[in-house]
Write a structure and sequence with these properties.
By secondary structure, this protein is an all-alpha fold. The protein has eight helices and two strands, in the order ββαααααααα.
Length: 276
């Protein structure tokens, strides 16, 4: 970009480009004129680069601000909006179905009774196989029932109790019919064994529900991963947002519930084979 004037290197006054002598100090400019023009051009280019750099910095700051606002809005919509949470929960949880609950419970009871008859009276298998089956089968059906019925934990707990009572009652009825013995146990040892079977079946069925809840919660957390910048952000008082950390602790506690229930079910079912 051509300049109409340049600065005299001696008196620093403006001199026309065509001049060879400074009109103010009358110094000869032939030797210093090209260098002065070059210095003036470089100075102008530096000023333009400064302006361009400031504009780019402002544009980058605006983009970063918009990006943070977008992440914050996404986080708020995912975690702080009850309607959004209810919609996600409704998508992950099926509509409540009492028919599915009842049919699964009846299928579990009939399957345990059939296996009891076949293992003990048809194939004369060891009681250990029946013990293992009364733990694994209710756990599988309890998981399927929780996945397809969509009902709450209290309903599944009551269903587990009913399934355990009906299953043990059916097993006692089959034994009394084939062996011609009384329906109810007549000694403390048989009563203890009956209660162990009841506890194992009920806890195994409810463990299936707990496992389903654990998997569902894990899937929701995978869909709603929290950005590290949002997690480490501070609130209006300058404190860290510790809510998400407490949620992680709650998730850990929830994850241990199926393990505890399954362990008690295994202990109740296999107690007779562990030396009492």
């Amino acid at each position: 970009m051509s300049q109409p004037t340049f600065n005299c290197p001696y008196c620093w006054s403006d001199v026309p480009v065509q001049a060879t002598v400074c009109s103010h100090c009358t110094r000869d400019l032939v030797l210093f004129k090209p260098l002065a023009l070059r210095v003036q051009t470089l100075a102008d280019e530096i000023e333009q680069l400064k302006v361009l750099t400031q504009q780019q910095a402002q544009a980058l700051a605006q983009l970063q601000s918009q990006d943070i606002q977008t992440v914050a809005q996404s986080y708020a919509q995912t975690h702080d909006t009850p309607q959004k949470q209810s919609s996600v929960a409704s998508m992950a949880t099926p509509a409540p179905s009492w028919l599915m609950l009842c049919s699964t419970a009846l299928w579990t009871v009939s399957s345990i009774g059939l296996c009891h008859w076949m293992l003990l009276f048809v194939y004369d298998a060891a009681p250990l196989f029946l013990r293992m089956l009364t733990i694994t089968l209710p756990a599988l059906t309890g998981y399927l029932c929780a996945r397809r019925s969509g009902l709450g934990w209290l309903v599944h707990l009551m269903t587990a109790t009913v399934v355990a009572a009906l299953s043990v009652g059916l097993m006692l009825a089959i034994t009394a019919r084939i062996d011609a013995v009384p329906l109810w146990p007549d000694n403390p040892r048989d009563w203890r064994e009956t209660l162990e079977y009841t506890a194992a079946i009920g806890l195994a069925f409810f463990t299936g529900y707990l496992v389903h809840r654990l998997i569902t919660r894990w899937q929701q957390q995978q869909r709603n991963k929290i950005s590290l910048r949002i997690l480490l952000a501070r609130d209006e008082k300058g404190q860290f947002k510790i809510t998400e950390i407490s949620n992680q602790v709650q998730s850990l506690i929830t994850a241990t519930a199926p393990l505890v229930s399954a362990s008690v079910a295994l202990y109740s079912g296999l107690k007779a084979f562990t030396g009492n």
